[in-house]
Amino acid sequence: MDLPEILNRLQISGETEAPSPSLLPGPPVATVLSQIQELLQAGKSSKTKEDILQDVMRLFETADSLWLFSSCCHSEGSDLGKVYVGFTGTLVQYAALPRCETDSGELCESWYSSVPGKACTVAGVLLRLVRRLGASNVVLPCGSTAAPVRSLVRKLLPPVFVFSAAHMQGLPWTDAQSELAARELLAASVQTAGCETLTELLCGKTSSDDEGILGPVLELLKPEMKKETWKLNQATKHVFSWTLIQVSRPWLCSYLDWVFPPSLLISDDYRTENKVLGVHCLHHIVLNVPAAALRQFNRAQVLYHALFNHLYTPEAHLIQAVLPCLLDLLSVLEKPPQKAGDPRKATRYDEVLRLVLTHMEMEHKIPLRRVYARNIPPFIDRLGIVIVRHLKRLERVIVGYLEVYDGPEEVARLYTLQALENTIQHAWPRYRTTMCDCKYWENILLHCMCNSQEKH
């Protein structure tokens, strides 16, 4: 039977405080939802399926809470949690992105033309279901509470969260309406769960609270974040990275084994945009996981080698992501250079800075020069007096970058001047005896000022 016939047979009316037995005769909700799934999975036109979903919205708006969510009496013997999770999966699949079989993991934008409209409709259905779950607190004739509604909410929210995250980030398969619908659905999910923030929904109220849905969400994503599968759905990596960014200390440490391998996998891809996305995920992990946990099982060392190899890729966006991540990771792997003991041995700080200075000397692309210049001052500050090991090469880099005009904003020159200032502050005991005299630097700076005035 089609959906209008199902609605007529159920005799849907407004919700009442004491449900009348006349509303209960008819097929159980499990049977109705099963038939709706069959209609959505049947080979019919998209318009017909859109009409079905509109009717489902009305069903969730007007049907009695006892009939919808009670696992006893009328629906006794039915596992409503499993029924609703399966029904939600069918809805999400209806608005899912086409499967990508290409090695790039990217599809043409024309493939996504129908996705925003479907996502809006599915978000509307799920929004009404989530709101009804949040408003349901009915006492049944048998004396028990409707559902367990709370258990049903906990089972439904993970797939609803994944769906919302896939359609709210301004990606090629979204538009303004679908993004708004997804955000509204996510906000309703937070409210239905009795939480105040998204972090509380994911992680619970305290670090020892197991009421958060982060574990089930990562469990849903796990099969799709394997080496063989993560490119089949273009949305998966964005859902994973966005979810990861929402979780900070102290909760993230408990899920390190879940999030570290996929982040490393994404960063190891041959496409630059995937490398950048993976490095951002890894940087968030470095900042929000205790150093002891990162050093355990040699994770930090593996991450260091992966990031260090990225320094050989001449892409400005990637280098800008890698250098701050490396700087924070080095504080996990190494003692502060100023307190390394006597004599001070060369460390990974020196290894990274040596390679960066080598690349800076040879680099002629303005975007890369700006990125290198922006990230050198923090390295100098972190090394402190130990920067004297690199004074000769650093001097050549500073002079070379001050001599070259890099555009009206003078980004590279400004950061290079900051690098020079930091070097003088930290290495002043050796500065005058190791580098050129003050007159030389006066000439360099005056030449830089005159050149800047001429360009402007």
Can you describe this structure in just a few lines?
The chain is mostly helical and 456 residues long. It contains 21 helices and no strands.
Overview of the molecule:
The protein is an all-alpha fold. The protein contains 21 helices and no strands. It has helices spanning 3-10, 29-41, 46-62, 65-69, 80-94, 115-135, 149-166, 176-192, 198-203, 214-221, 234-245, 256-267, 272-288, 291-295, 299-310, 316-333, 348-362, 366-383, 391-403, 411-434, 438-455.
Descriptive terms for the model:
about 450 residues, mainly alpha, about 65% helix
- What is the straight-line distance between the termini? 76 Å
Strand content: under 5%
User: Helical segment tally?
Assistant: 21
Low-confidence stretches: 9-25
Number of strands: 0
Q: Describe the global form.
A: elongated
H/E element order: HHHHHHHHHHHHHHHHHHHHH
- Mean pLDDT value: 84
Structural class call reads: mainly alpha
Helix fraction by DSSP (H/I, runs of at least 4): 55-70%
* Rg on CA atoms, Å: 29 Å
Biggest sheet statistics: none
Helix and strand layout, with pairings?
Layout (H helix, E strand, L loop, with lengths): L2 H8 L18 H13 L4 H17 L2 H5 L10 H15 L20 H21 L13 H18 L9 H17 L5 H6 L10 H8 L12 H12 L10 H12 L4 H17 L2 H5 L3 H12 L5 H18 L14 H15 L3 H18 L7 H13 L7 H24 L3 H18 L1
Helix pairs in contact: 2-5, 3-6, 5-6, 5-7, 6-7, 6-8, 7-8, 7-10, 11-13, 12-13, 13-16, 15-16, 16-18, 17-18, 17-19, 18-20, 19-20
